[in-house]
Amino acid sequence: xxxxxxxxxxxxxxPTNTQPSPFGNAFYGAGSGLIRGGLGAYGEKxxxxxxxxxxxxxxxxxxxxxxxxQLNDQYVRNKLKVVLLPFLHRGHWTRITEPVGxxxxxxxxxxxxxAPDLYIPFMAFGTYVILAGLTxxxxxxxxxxxxxxxxxxxxxxxxxxxxxxxxxxxxxxxxEAPLLDIVAYAGYAFAGVCLAVLGRILLSYSYYLxxxxxxxxxxxxxxxTMKRVLFAEMRSHDSSRHHYLLIFIAxxxxxxxxxxxxxxxxxxx
Length: 269
What we know:
Largest sheet: 2 strands, antiparallel
Strand order of the largest sheet: 1-2
Number of domains: 2
Oligomer: single chain
Shape: globular
Low-confidence stretches: 1-8, 14-63
Mean pLDDT: 78
Distance between the termini: 68 Å
Radius of gyration: 24 Å
């Protein structure tokens, strides 16, 4: 019978596993290789990019998601200044490259103010939801359902902005930009929306001035950024066509900002 009284004298105690299993590391390495390879093949199939571009940019970004979070306080301050006051940006709008493994790759945000990051968009989106809940509370309309709707509304606005930028690139034959880059550029809109909603809370009449201001600044920021992407990567050189599309992107910010800034849930009641 099995003895539950503990270890018996003279019987060696089983060794305690204090070191990580080498098999775990092996499986982890194999899994990482499969994931990188799969994402690289998927990116090449969907975006129509060359194998070299996928390996040097898209696969690198997905296999190293920390790329979009390599930043510091100075970068955050400077990036918000570029997004909210783009006409004061005196430097260039192109990203800085560096050789990595025999290929050119982009430097992370901490070393390049023009690099996209996901920290500011995520923080701005979370702040938008918090400010929306505060606004609903001041209106006497706060409820979990209302807050959930504002969360979904923010995601829908983010998605529409991503689709606007992506379709613009595809229409000009320039679909190579990594998806996370586009998600980051689209998410910067929440920084301006948050400023406008905060203005409504502090001084209601300032909302209309701030929404127009931040909308104009976001349009300038996207035009400058997308112009760099289009000129650098587009296959066609129809300058008049892409100028019209850039103008369309800038003007499309107004209805988007007005929709996101309209904190109301009347349809729920």
